[in-house]
Amino acid sequence: MNPFSYERAADAAAAIGLAKGNAAARYLGGGTNLVDLMRETVERPEMLVDVTGLPHGIEPRADGGLLIGASATNTALAADSHVRTHYPLLARAILAGASAQIRNMATVGGNILQRTRCRYFYDTAAACNKREPGAGCDARDGFNRYHAILGASPACVATHPSDMCVALAALDATVHLDGPDGPRSIALADLHRLPGDRPDIETELKPGELIAAVEIPPLPFARRSTYRKVRDRASYAFALVSVAAALDLAEDGTVRDVRLALGGVAHKPWRASAAEAALKGRPANPESFRAAAEVELAAATGLRDNGFKIELAKRTIVAVLGDLTGDEA
């Protein structure tokens, strides 16, 4: 057993003060990922700082956006009437992500900061550069059905597991941070890192920083949005491929604006910017959707077991956009 101390913080300042200078301290939200990793001895913190006392409100903003406290539970966010009406892709992504029991515990901040991982990360007998930099990556020549087809590196091919983050990436969400050097903000799409040669460094957070809130900007056409998750089984498996999309159509049936993000394909939630650019001004039909998907997946590379995900991602993009136009392919 790995001994650790436990402290409960009343607010962000107290949490930052407790963790300051202790590289082995970890912030604890619902614990649905961290406690699991501690049980497997993958994570060995010396101190847990409970941050569930941080703000948990879900507040519509005067400009039409939404501010979400880091300690809001996934259940509360998915059930919020404003979210369900104005950002249905977010509610659907959360409901696709985990069982009701886990959603009741998991916090927004914790969901965002869950570890990017695969089965080899949990197996302490396997070579894993995320656990031990320089050890190697057994997944590359092992069972890699669920692994990355975009943005991977020789050091790591794991995929980010969050469904909620894929929706937030599509919605241009901003993450508000607080830490020893004061508050700052970063786009959620820029928060997580691709693996490069240091897959153990997963985010752009500085030492001691924590998530205080998440803000979604106003996006009126997000009412026409959805989330689709393709997986091997319906009972809360990680995505093989997922797509979050919001679509704005002009009166002539062309794409006026679009938001698109992919899950299950990379080390981070993948904002499909190339596909978005290819779609704007084009007819909203299966041919345009397929052409945009081809552009986005042009750089995709499959491993022994996951090459099928390239075509699966293309077809899922086409199907989701078709669903939003009422003309599913």
From TrEMBL:
Xref: PROSITE patterns: FAD_PCMH (PS51387)
InterPro entries associated with the record: CO_DH_flav_C (IPR005107), CO_DH_flav_C_dom_sf (IPR036683), Diverse_Substr_Oxidored (IPR051312), FAD-bd_PCMH (IPR016166), FAD-bd_PCMH-like_sf (IPR036318), FAD-bd_PCMH_sub1 (IPR016167), FAD-bd_PCMH_sub2 (IPR016169), Mopterin_DH_FAD-bd (IPR002346)
Coiled-coil region(s): none
Ranges of residues in domain FAD-binding PCMH-type: 1-221
Keywords for this protein: FAD, Flavoprotein
Record's signal peptide: none
Recorded superkingdom: Bacteria
Record-given protein name: Xanthine dehydrogenase family protein subunit M
Keyword Lipid metabolism: no
Keyword Flavoprotein appears in the UniProt entry: yes
Organism this protein belongs to: Azospirillum melinis
